[in-house]
Amino acid sequence: MEHLATYAKRLLPRWVKGLLRFFLVPKTVRQTERELGTFVLEKTRDFSMRRRGRPESLQSSILKDCILRQKCLSEMSEAHQFLQTALMPDYRQNLYEYYRQQQYLILLVFLSYAFRGPGCLASHIQPYIAASSELSSMRILDYGAGLAFGLIHLMRTCPGKVASITIVDLDLIHTDLVEYILSDIRSDTEIAVMRVTNPEAIPDFGKRTFNVIYGKDVFEHLTEPERHLRSMLARAEDSCHCYFDFSDHGAKYLQHVHPQLSHLPEILREFSFRSDGNTAGLSKFVRTA
Ligand SMILES: C[S@@+](CC[C@H](N)C(=O)[O-])C[C@H]1O[C@@H](n2cnc3c(N)ncnc32)[C@H](O)[C@@H]1O
């Protein structure tokens, strides 16, 4: 039934989805999303100054149109990837370089997320809000975090609940930006950013343990998602909440090197997690001590 709903959603034209979201998503959520997006843009300006870049470039109307109205953005991003796959031999064996060569385009796409219309950040924000209401102290792992809007929102609204944050992502410009933003929010939270340059390698979490594990739109980018998932679950505390996006991503396509993810919930069962429904489109799994 869930699969049918997912396919039906994919078939709807973008304007119909936008209209539905406009009526279904509460106005307060829409305001939160835009405000969060604006906050991230302001921090991007500070980050640019810190790097001695040209922050005034962020005011360019072409750039603002891309971010605020997504003008041509998804077409440009896909066109760039098609060109890369045409000219980069064996790009699937060289994924870090593939991403590195489109890192500013990836950042542009991330910056636009908050302005895509009502509900655009629901799957980023709601799982963390839900976990924060159920746990007194959070030790969070966000795998393939991107711009980590959910973590930024959490740190702005209830930093006292967040004991530690561990981010695993490729060593790209968006990872530097998210580290800057999170570290700039004054709190006692321990923040660790693990920068990946070999996407095949499993990160060494040392002694870190987690009671919230979040992974959205990342598993389809990993050539062996099972190995990565097992390494995360091996560091899960006895009581732990996981939010994962295991949706079927269709055929192999550009960065989707491993689109079939339907077997992954089985691995959570091996680690004694039980399925606990769906939060804003992500599958939730819980293990209790
Ligand atoms: C489609 S984005 C999703 C970002 C974020 N989770 C979201 O939903 O907005 C995929 C993310 O996975 C990261 N990624 C790709 N391969 C990775 C790997 N081997 N290890 C960690 N992160 C990876 C990319 O850099 C990117 O930030």
Task: Write a brief caption for the model.
By secondary structure, this protein is α/β, with parallel strands linked by helices. The protein has 12 helices and 7 strands.
Strand content: 15-25%
Termini distance? 31 Å
Strand order of the largest sheet: 3-2-1-4-5-7-6
Q: Which H/E pattern describes the elements? A: HHHHHHHHEHEHEEHEHEE
Oligomeric state of shown chains: single chain
Number of helices: 12
Structure description:
With 289 residues, the chain is of the alpha/beta class. It folds into 2 domains: 2-115, no CATH class; 122-287, Vaccinia Virus protein VP39 (Rossmann fold), CATH 3.40.50. It is built from 12 helices and 7 strands. A 7-stranded mixed β-sheet has the order 3-2-1-4-5-7-6, with helices on both faces. Helix 4 (61-69) packs across helix 7 and helix 8 packs across helix 9. The chain starts with a helix and ends with a strand. S-adenosylmethionine binds at residues 99, 144-146, 168-170, 172, 196, 199, 216-218, 221-222.
Note the main attributes of this structure.
binds S-adenosylmethionine, alpha/beta, Rossmann fold, globular, seven-stranded mixed β-sheet, 2 domains, 12 helices, 289 residues
